[in-house]
Amino acid sequence: MFDAVQFASESVEQLKSTIDDIAIIACSGGVDSSVAAILAKRAAGDLLHCVYVDTGLMRKNETEFIEKMFAEQGIDLITVHAADRYFKALEGVTEPEQKRKIIGETFIRIFEDEQAKCGAKYLIQGTIAPDWIESGGGVRDTIKSHHNVGGLPEDMTLEIVEPLRDLYKDEVRILARELDIIVAERQPFPGPGLALRTLGDLTRERVAVVREACAIVEEEFEAAAEAGVMELPWQYFAALLPVRSVGVHGDVRAYGETIVVRAVASMDGMSARFSEIPFKVLEKISTRITNTVKGAVNRVVYDITHKPPGTIEWE
Length: 315
Ligand code: XMP
What we know:
GMP Synthetase, Chain A, domain 3; four-stranded mixed beta sheet; binds xanthosine-5'-monophosphate; 9 helices
């Protein structure tokens, strides 16, 4: 049985003995990095610089949400606006592993810029066990290079510290509740963000479509769960597929894009079962997505694949 109190105090002690100089931590607003930030803050105090990178690949209203959350925790957050840099680096890139490597590398370069500004020696990350296991850190083949693992450049000078690397997601959530973090129950969101949910051309316009579709899926599922119509899945989102199909808008032929809705039950993301969602909820999502992003999307499908053989994200 995981003992969160003991883990937190041991981890703070260990961080205290490791962090002897300025450290920066990558805060994404997810439960993993938020837990890592709070433990690191307790251990390193003013030596810690919390940095949030707005990659342009984040969820709707995410930057405002994160800034507010950290302010409430009494932690100063440095926001780096890097959307231009990411879209430029990702222009024309469609291969998933290449995307992840570019995102990981850009991320590290941004942190090196921050390092140059504040003279940091360490980079703290909220990496958890499935991140490095799936990136080939164990005996398994590489399934996906998780961006905070496989994308690290070889010439990096920051020393990486990963206080949560032996934990699984359910344990991180127990720890988050113990630390009283408001994002404890938040669904996971991948580091490379909406890039993994935009299959095909990675343009600002297409990412904006996925962002809106993800927001609609979240709103409708959360409203249905609140109304007792369904249970909230472990993870739920939309992805934009590189598939066009023929449809009609009014009485005019349309050749639009396809959104897939994905919702799964899981313990730790290592395996998952697709969630059975009431058709009424899916219907509302489909109507809202095709109405809201008019002209762009004319077809919405639901993914009924477990993991394995699928993975949770599409890339
Ligand atoms: P997959 O798609 O591999 O996802 O079944 C398992 C869980 O991990 C999340 N995920 C990531 N998280 N960096 C992250 O921080 C990544 O590169 C990454 N890729 C997938 C995914 O959202 C799911 O919760």
